[in-house]
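Handout, section B. The chain below has 157 residues.
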Amino acid sequence: MRALKLVQHMNMNAVRMSEGLLDKIRKSERCADLLRKVSLEEQKRANLETYRDLTNWLSDGTDSSMQDRYVARGILRAGQGVPFSNMYWAVCIAHEHLWEYMQEECLIEEPVEFWGGVMLLRSLTRFFERATYYTLIGYEKAASGALYEVSPVLSQR
């Protein structure tokens, strides 16, 4: 398992992290349409899912589970009329918020070994790149009407 300490921290503090993330998104003018078009409860759930997905991805490193969720999220947000630029910026904020969390909670308490830290940083960047990519695919599917391909994920909502 990669980054066990971070995964443990995130699992124990996921609610606090997602609340902090929501505060930052709510303060961003670049997410104004996202905030207007998506309920507060749905935003809270999506933020919590993001951190849960990240810990799962750090544990197993496969795209299969996150692909379905983020394609579905892209389809959903496109259907809600949320511009992709708002979604992209929210992902950027989530990435930055995680960096701040790591600096405050994890790295200062117990510094990560140099190469382990480099690998962790690479993995974090890869996760957020993939989250953005799969969300964009969802937007494209919504625009082309190809919703049937991920309907089981959408029906779980």
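Note. The mean pLDDT is 81. Compare this with the example in section A.
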